[in-house]
Design brief:
With about 350 residues, the chain is α+β, with helices and mostly antiparallel strands. The chain is built from 12 helices and 7 strands. The strands form 2 sheets. The protein has a 5-stranded mixed sheet with strand order 2-3-1-6-7, with helices on both faces. Strand 6, helix 11 and strand 7 form a beta-alpha-beta unit. The radius of gyration is 32 Å and the shape is elongated. The model has no long low-confidence stretch (mean pLDDT about 85).
Amino acid sequence: MLDEHERTLAFAEVALGQIKSLRQTAVPRNYEIWYVYATGYNSPLNKIINETLARNGKLTEADLEQIYETYLSQIKTTDRIDKVGARVIGEIDDVMTLITDALGMSASYDASLSGAANTLAAADNHDQVKTVIQTLVKATREMRDTNKALETRLALSKTEISNLQHSLEAIRAESLTDPLTGLGNRKYFDRSIEHAVQSALASGQPLSLLMFDIDHFKSFNDSYGHLTGDQVLRLVGMSLKQTIKGQDITARYGGEEFAVVLPNTALRQALTVADHIRRAVMSKELKKKSTGEILGRVTISVGVSILKPSDDTDSLIERADACLYAAKRNGRNRVICEVDPEYVAEAHTQVA
């Protein structure tokens, strides 16, 4: 908890420092922009800020407003959902109008059939019968054309509504995805782990959680800039995608911290997965895109916890996080779980 406190304060100090150095108003909107910038959580936001500052040397009020509306405002997602919803309602209204017209035509056709039956019953010559038949043929053709138009329109409507459904699913997926790494975001993680924990407790199946943090991440940002820091985050995200498959859940927990939920996975297996991820990350060489300079290799520290019958989501995360910080305090670039001596010793010291 102390490390998290210090880390968030560091982000806050960076945000306030940027506001002061650029002489901007310290309103919540500007603070949020710079806080998110400091975390490196939103790569497109960092990129546009860096480009604007490089070009103009400052950010105007108009720039800040545009950045906030484009990269942070939640209204945009709501507007997109509202627009899709309006189109669905429009499609339903059009189809209902067409169905109403078809029902009217059906009633008219039914009346024509009844009238023809009565006329045929009273007909006493060939010409009267011929007239009735011609009337029925005309009404039948009109009814057939109406049904064909309805069938065509319903098919088009089905396609359009299916496309709109896909749009809503895409918006939902986007709202649960970290834009920089392509992994699930914190919202996705919170939802997924809650469901996974409840399922594991109900079924009695094992569940493990990995929490890991990029070692010395701040130094990458300080030494090479936020764009290189973003590259480090993408590298880790790519390693996770290549390593974790199937039902396992991967997410960017926040800043430079990531999480992996492993359903139906006992502690020993989880440790193997954790070390596989650590090795996969370390195997990749980091190169600065702008100059081709080799910056070395990235390492991660990993904490692993296993679900206990008395656990809830918070306690499971708390132990994995404590193991993570034990790994960092004991040399970094390592995996520590809650039964390891390093964690047990620290936990005992904290209780004492």
